[in-house]
Amino acid sequence: MVKKLFIDDNNMNTTQEQLDLSDLFNHDKDSIDKYKKGINTATENVLSFLHNRTQPFSGVAHEELQKVVDKIDFKEAPTSSHLVFEELQEIYLKHAVAFHLPKYIAHLNCPIVIPSLIGEQILSAINSSLDTWDQSAGGTLIEQKLIDWTGQQIGYPTPDGVFTSGGTQSNLMAILLMRDSFYQKKQQYDVTKFGVNTDKGKLKIFCSECSHFSVKKSAALLGLGEDAVISIPVDDNFKMDCEALESAILKEFIDGNCPIGVVATAGTTDYGSIDPLKSIGVITERYQLWFHVDAAVGGGLLLSNEHKYLLDGIEKSDSTTIDYHKTYFQTVSCSGFIVKEPHNLNLISHHAEYLNPKACKDAGVPNQVDKSLQTTKRFDALKLWLTFRLMGTEKLGSYYDQTLALTKVAADCIQNRKDFELLNPPSLHCLVFRFAPINLNADQLNQLNILIRKKLFSNGQAVVAGTKFKGNNYLKFTILNPTMSKENFEEILSILAMIGEQLLEEEKQFI
Ligand SMILES: Cc1ncc(COP(=O)(O)O)c(C=O)c1O
User: What is the DSSP letter of 74?
Assistant: First the structure.
């Protein structure tokens, strides 16, 4: 036991009472015992989550949980840790949405593989920070090797990049490099020092109308404004219309603005569609624009021998976003931003004397902070490393391929029913559809589908997503779980239809 230190008036240390430091994680026996016991308790709680869950959501209302949360006071810990975990069950574990169950078919949350969980356990205990060599050592090399692997699969000859917190941060980095390289190359202007300058025209970025909102958000954050993002229409398969893209670029040049880059989406959030990467590569080359591929969703294709060709043309891009926490079965967070030409990352390097002085770089000491928006950074790469080493990329790829095959099965299930309409052809993992049983008008159909989803969520039997297309409301399946089956899809559709039929009976507005 350590003595608690008090400083007296003469700055002399005096000891007055015992200080219990056994909650600190270290090699002391008390600490190790507490750690082991704590990990056992954590495991038991996780196992009870797995065992007690038969449906993906409890259906609890947020108002109900809010009342319980409001009563918690943090000052003193309860006398027994048992009480704390009971409380956690009540507030969280009983209700947390269970992504591993096959009736969770809503958003881009994949079930996770056990090697990723093992990695999570190790990385949080060792707690390396992946900014500098002196805070990570071998961890930096692990991250760099995985970035290199990803870049090689994309087809970049000498890639570089960093792990990030998610697709949003990776896309922000892409727009940042797009902006800064434009100013540097085309206007010999130091935007880092002087800020955005529109004297020679407003900067413009192009992406499809189905691209992720983080593109607009990044433009706003980087001082370009959301209006800098020009939405290009999509074709019937929800892919960017390249003729419209080229016309839009030309129009901006004619209007005296400055097109700086195109963001293609490889796997749109709602439809899974992949923009025509080869054609976009030709256009960006013609007009010397930065070409970024947001493959947050479609990045899993790099694992698939059978389907990798769907990304043909990605190798022409300057940068790519990949979310390992979407299609590589990794725990949140685990994402990558990869560039074709490493020197572009210098645009965001900042050398701080206390952390990464230029001398370290000159001496060839590896680090990731020179390329990163984050300083202190989780060692998420360890999870992917252990996944690749314990499973191998072939096996991981077979899990991914299974989800693609299942999406086609689910599409058939929807199309085989007369009471549902499928909006998009199956592409990657996403199916957008609606319950449309009888001759209802557009407003009634919209109301009905909104209510079906709401009702389903409040009973929790299954969780499906929703989205809008041309002002109409749809339901959405995102299929990322290789344990799903045809029976599973049929059952979910029957539940949706049953809720829909009940609503039609109960609600006068549909008559
Ligand atoms: C196409 C696409 N890009 C980027 C993102 C953002 O990723 P994250 O949620 O990891 O920030 C998403 C999220 O769904 C996405 O679908």
Answer: -
Phi, psi of 233 (to 5 degrees): -65, 160
Residues 180-219 have pLDDT tens digits of 999 999 999 999 999 999 999 999 999 999 999 999 999 9
Tokens read off for 15 = 């000891």
pLDDT of residue 6: 66
All structural domains of the chain: 2-95 (no CATH), 118-374 (3.40.640.10), 394-510 (3.90.1150.170)
454-478 residue pLDDT tens: 999 999 999 999 999 999 999 999 9
Q: Return the residue whose CA atom lies nearest to atom 4 of ligand 1.
A: 167
| Residue (of 500, 487, 397) closest to 102 by Cα position | 487
**CB of residue 311 inside a 6 A radius of ligand 1:** no
Say whether pLDDT at 431 is over 60.
yes
Q: Which residue's CA lies nearest to atom 14 of ligand 1? A: 269
Q: Which residues of 120-157 are buried (b: 16+ CB within 10 A; e: fewer)?
A: beebeeeebbbbbbebbeebbebbbebbbbbbebbbbe
What is the best residue among 207, 211, 214 to mutate for testing ligand 1's pocket, by most ligand atoms within 8 Å of CB? 214
Is 449 close to ligand 1, i.e. is its CB under 6 Å away?
A: no
Ligand 1 mean position to 269 CA, how many Å? 7
Query: What gap in Å lies between CA 287 and CA 303, rounded to an integer?
Result: 32
CA atoms within 13 A on the CB side of 327: 31
| CB 335 near ligand 1, within 6 Å | yes
Q: Does the CB atom of residue 383 touch ligand 1 within 6 A?
A: no
Q: Check if 272 has its Cβ closer than 6 Å to any atom of ligand 1.
A: no
Q: Is the CB of 294 under 6 A from ligand 1?
A: yes
